[in-house]
Amino acid sequence: MYKRILLKLSGESLMGSKGYGIDENRLADYAQQIQHIAQKGVQIGIVIGGGNIFRGLSGTQKGFDRVKGDQMGMLATVINSLALCSALEAIGQKVRVMTSVRMEPIGELYSTAAALRLMEEGNVVIIAGGTGNPYFTTDTASVLRAIEIKADVMMKGTRVDGIYTADPEKDPTATKFDEITYDEVLDRKLRVMDLTAITMCRENKMPIYVFDMDTVGNLEKVINDEPIGTLVKP
């Protein structure tokens, strides 16, 4: 079993059956899954995307200044982080929100030492605001935080059950990888994460596990080493 993980959650997945915003049922499912593994003693850091509310790059394509668009995206991740925090608190799970830029009283300013202390005290730590800088995605922020907290693995919870040779939602002939190397991901130009994030993982030997988070119980299966997704490793 993993001792410490960084869980990356998709903002789009939080929409659930809705076309925008946050589906309360999906949020509750996520909270229950997270609490189950926290109760097993796994230390959990979480980074959530903001695409269900605002995506900076999409905004730029519609005329927003890139820096301001990315800052709006960062704020979207804070909204999602507060929502997940509230859902976890509602079921009795100790949880704290930290932000990459100063934003008290919404959350404590992120530092690696403080995050580790909180996790060791049994808190789930949600790290909001991306890297705090424009031009970086929440995938890159997830990798950065995983490296900083010395996570055993970065888990990317998505709506797809792993990495495929092509987009399985568009290509019915796509086949799934059980394991794949960073170099293969780069050579095949598979859209697992952006180039910066994959390169950081490769350089720091941070394994990535991609799995379907939307199926209730899958997070616990991953923690128990059941092969339901795709492992990216050296």
State the gist of this model.
With 234 residues, this protein is of the alpha/beta class.
Write up this protein.
The chain has 234 residues and is an alpha/beta fold. The strands form 2 sheets. A 9-stranded mixed sheet has the order 4-3-5-2-1-6-10-11-9, with helices on both faces. It has a two-stranded antiparallel ribbon with strand order 7-8. The model has no long low-confidence stretch (mean pLDDT 93). It has a single domain, classed as Carbamate kinase (3-Layer(aba) Sandwich), CATH 3.40.1160. The longest helix is centred in the middle third of the chain and has 25 residues. The protein is built from 8 helices and 11 strands. Strand 1, helix 1 and strand 2 form a beta-alpha-beta unit. Helix 1 crosses helix 3.
Number of helices: 8
What CATH first level would be assigned? Alpha Beta
- Give the assembly state of these chains: single chain
Distance between the termini: 20 Å
Q: Give me the CATH superfamily.
A: Acetylglutamate kinase-like
How many β strands by DSSP? 11
The main sheet orders its strands as: 4-3-5-2-1-6-10-11-9
Unreliable parts: none
Helix/strand-derived class? Answer: alpha/beta
**Overall average pLDDT:** 93
Give the name of the CATH architecture: 3-Layer(aba) Sandwich
**In percent terms, what proportion of residues is strand?**
15-25%
Q: How many discrete domains?
A: 1
Helical amount: 25-40%
H-E string? EHEHHEEHEHEEEEHHEHE
Shape: globular
What Rg do the Cα atoms give?
A: 17 Å
